[in-house]
Amino acid sequence: METRTERSGLTLAAIVDTALQMAAADGLESLTIGEVAKRLGLSKSGVFSRVGSREALQCAVVEEFDRRFKQDVLVPAMREPRGLPRLNAIMRLWLARAREVELRQGCIYSAGAFEYDDREGPVRERLLDGVMRWRAALRRAVVQAIDAGHLHAHTDAEQLVFEMDAIFTGLMRDARFLRDPRAADRAWAAWQRLLQASMPQAAPPIPSPRSR
Question: Which pLDDT score is estimated for 1?
């Protein structure tokens, strides 16, 4: 028999999951305690007692998005050897998640960057922290690939991270706004081109994730 604490935990998970779906579709600013309660068939007080304020709910959504993103991309990529295998796995899994998740429901970090670029407060700070930690993880992977001799010794790690992120951002815009069905394939081709240009010597193209 479930305890009261267990039921409360399950309800909180359902609240955050529902709010995440809403935020991915319509933005973090679309979230309201009342609408989340309505979708779950709960009272507003029931939702409030578990998450607190609307701002706290928004922050909880960002944290949950961050957790799922890491679980899908960073955790499996870290099983690969340091250097190019890990770096390429990160990009492959990142673009695969974009194809399978973000292109269908939206990306909290991509949309949030525009939604909160001129706002201040805890939600912006939580978004910024997540994005910067992801950038730091990318930079570590790039530096490890340089140290292993898999990338040019003079590779600018910060520049490469910027370009990796730009590929993802371009994919999201072209796929969702321009509705280009080839956007994901173009993103992978752009990554191959960037990777080849960063290597000490020519290497054969890496197969598209779709062909695996």
Answer: 40
